[in-house]
Amino acid sequence: MATEATTASKFQDPDLRPVSQTPEFKPETAHDGLRFWQFMIAGSIAGSVEHMAMFPVDTIKTHMQALRPCPLKPVGIRQAFRSIIQKEGPSALYRGIWAMGLGAGPAHAVYFSFYEVSKKFLSGDSSSSNSAAAHAVSGVFATVSSDAVFTPMDMVKQRLQMGEGTYRGVWDCVKRVMREEGFGAFYASYRTTVLMNAPFTAVHFATYEAAKKALVEISPERVGDDEEGWLVHATAGAAAGGLAAAVTTPLDVVKTQLQCQGVCGCDRFTSSSISDVLKTIVKKDGYRGLLRGWLPRMLFHAPAAAICWSTYEGVKSFFQDFNGDPNTA
């Protein structure tokens, strides 16, 4: 008994405290039961599918917006389409698609992951998670980050779309631009792109979240509280993409001018000043020139956003099931 008492007192020594067991490591989730890298993969897949599917429409828009030295005449979608097919064949509609593939995946991975993290940070645990302001500001943060990744390849893509044999491919374009114009040429349109995409994204995300919420409230019997159908994502995405595209068309025209300058007779500018480019467009083509390509731009972004959001939410749902998120149970 004395031995047992001595042993007990030994373990009651205040200097000998039991060491707490290390808790099981679980990667912290960022939002919606997903980890950061899963948002990146979902965004990358969604962006790649969106841009690849709608690439021919983007090619037509680029041709309509390019500014040539000669006096301009109104060019419709059918005219631009026929001109491309007659001069270069159907394959010209997909020229530059590899540049798009190289840029769209990484850029959208940054885009959606920054959006989700920013939305969680701005919303916190309060009711502001459904705030249009939180969604809009998160969208602006996302686009500033993703445009830094996407702008160089977008410039290469547009030059290849306009090239008509000027460049042999993506890497030939990259090497020649670097050699002839310097690294700065890849970011000549970055300021314009950010100034265009910041309001575009703010309108896009705020409209998407509002439209999604409205659609769920309109027919709650068809859409559960915890599981929104793909039709809701597609419809809300189409509305958001079309509206945002219409609002920001003038800046998209400026961006195209800066990225295609010097290619196939397109005007070359002495600076990348947005105001200088705007003045040149108005001088040569009038104010209507600022709206060139608005219809194919809307025809691109409405279905592209529908494809992108439904794909993105679908991949998110897959990861939630994979992670065993209780919200999806």
From TrEMBL:
SUPFAM superfamilies: Mitochondrial carrier (SSF103506). It is a multi-pass membrane protein. InterPro entries: MCP (IPR002067), MCP_dom_sf (IPR023395), MCP_transmembrane (IPR018108). GO terms for cellular component: mitochondrial membrane. Residues 1-10 have a biased composition (Polar residues). Pfam families: Mito_carr. Solcar repeats lie at residues 34-121, 130-214, 228-318. It is found in: Mitochondrion membrane. Keywords: Membrane, Mitochondrion, Repeat, Transmembrane, Transmembrane helix, Transport. One of its GO terms (molecular function) is iron ion transmembrane transporter activity. Residues 1-27 are annotated as: Disordered. Belongs to the mitochondrial carrier (TC 2.A.29) family. This is (rape) hypothetical protein. The lineage of its organism: Eukaryota, Viridiplantae, Streptophyta, Embryophyta, Tracheophyta.
